[in-house]
Amino acid sequence: MTMENKIIEEAFPQTLKILSELIKFQTVSGSSNIGLIEYCEKKLSKLGAESFKTFDKKKLRANLFSTISGKKKINGGGIILSGHTDVVPASEQDWVSNPYIATERDNKVFGRGSCDMKGFIACTLALAPYFAKQDLKKPIHFSYTYDEETACQGAPVMLKELKNRKINCSVCIIGEPTNMKAIQAHKGCYEYSTHFSGLAGHGSAPDKGVNTIEYATRFINKLVELRKELKDRKPKNSVFIPPYTTLQIGRIRGGIARNVIADQCTVDWELRPIVFEDGEFINKIMDNFVKDVLLPEMKKTYSESNIKKEIIGEIVGFKKEEKSEAVNLICNLTGDNSRNVVSFGTEAGLFQELGISTVVCGPGSIEQAHKIDEYVSFDELKSCLKMLINLKDQISN
Fold first, then answer.
1. DSSP code string of 122-163
2. Angstrom distance (rounded) from CA 103 to CA 80
3. How far apart, in whole angstroms, are the C-alpha atoms of residue 60 and residue 31?
4. Which of 83, 135, 213, 266 has the fewest Cβ atoms surrounding its Cβ within 10 A?
5. Using an 8 Å Cβ cutoff, are 139 and 67 in contact?
6. Residues 6+ apart with CB under 8 A from 344
């Protein structure tokens, strides 16, 4: 057995144990993740890691940034291993087993977040003792963020603090599920809620009220019309599938009964822009449509009518770089020279904006993320451990 395989065999049971413990924390986006963050911080602190936390405004959710500098306490540079701690909701009645209790079947770990992306976090924590024993020439940083699934709300708070502390890192590996393939680019993700306020009334006299559902429907129809224009604007040689900026309506909610004029309605919608200009294009048209057409009509009947756009998040895309230190590193570590792109969003563009060479690569498949009976396979976890172990040649003397 090679030394690498020996380390993997020693670290794998610990990985499964840690993953099981992480899944128990029900860190659904918007709820507290403090328990999980304290669990991770405690494990890393025992190894001599230096840590700091950043919080949301209500101190209910936290980011953790921890650094293992090795015996010589090397400062500056280094590699970030980054994962988000939040998960999407899960309904226990739909799952074969409890989504918040890790269950092993068929050489897979089932549980909410097992794939997206507590599996990667478990791998990094399982190997933290290994890194701490090395004679490092570059620090290893552990970055665990909150509320990535809701427009990446946590990472910007942490990255601002990194900038304030002048912590300059050379590479960031974001362990989203990619089947351990190097991802070098993805689209942006702009999320909005448009709120309509009108005038309620009896359904028998629709002209005396302002029915916000009807105006919201016209708003949606306008968005759908713009899809064709987005297709026509697709860049030449686009590397994405589909090759243009996408737009979709996620949810509409409003009204209280069939015979009551709906005075409140909200439309949740999103854009996945390939280029920044597409986001500007859509927002300008829709803002003008609201200001010049919809709102004046609503105010004719009821002057207090209103339409308000709430920006949930405008997450920049992850841009392909011709020469990427991070992508080249992953290809060397995994022995796989393929360089792919995806349409789903991550925190990669935020790290990239800070001048950190970034790559997305982690265990599991995006096909399992957000699904009922989400899982990550043993083989994927072991492949991740192998990749991280191979970092030794990059960070050790």
1. HHHHHHHHHHHTS-BSS-EEEEEES-STTTS-SHHHHHHHHH
2. 29
3. 7
4. 135
5. yes
6. 176, 186, 366
Please tell me the total count of domains within the chain. 2
The β-bridge partners of 191 are 270, 313
| Both structure tokens of 381 | 């976890």
Identify the H or E element spanning 265.
strand 264-272
pLDDT value at 374 more than 70 = yes
Q: Are 174 and 359 in contact (CB under 8 A)?
A: yes
| Confidence band of 75 (pLDDT split at 50, 70, 90) | low
CA distance 183 to 347: 12
Q: Can you give the pLDDT at residue 395?
A: 77
State the DSSP string of 318-344: B---SS-HHHHHHHHHHS---EEEESS
Do the Cβ atoms of 362 and 384 come closer than 8 Å? yes
pLDDT tens digits for 101-157? 999 999 999 999 999 999 999 999 999 999 999 888 889 999 999 999 988 999 999
The verdict on 168 and 294 lying in the same domain is no
Query: Do you know the residue count of the chain?
Result: 397
Instruction: Exactly one of 41, 116, 148, 149 is catalytic; name it.
Output: 148
Active site residue 229: no
Picking from 315, 337, 367, the residue at the C-terminal end of a domain is 315
- Predicted pLDDT at 60: 95
Alpha carbon 181 to its chain centroid, in Å, reads 17
Looking at residue 198, which CATH number applies to its domain? 3.30.70.360
Q: Are residues 147 and 269 in the same domain?
A: no
* Residue 135: predicted pLDDT: 87
Domain containing 59 equals 3-186+317-395
Confidence of residue 69 (pLDDT cuts 50, 70, 90): confident
Same domain for 109 and 16: yes
Which own/partner pairs from 24-27 qualify as long-range (CB within 8 Å, at least 24 positions apart)? Answer: 24/100, 24/101, 24/102, 25/85, 26/87, 26/100, 26/112, 27/85, 27/86, 27/87, 27/113, 27/146
Q: What is the pLDDT of residue 234?
A: 92
Q: Which residues of 146-163 are buried (b: 16+ CB within 10 A; e: fewer)?
A: bbbbbbbbbbbbbbeebe
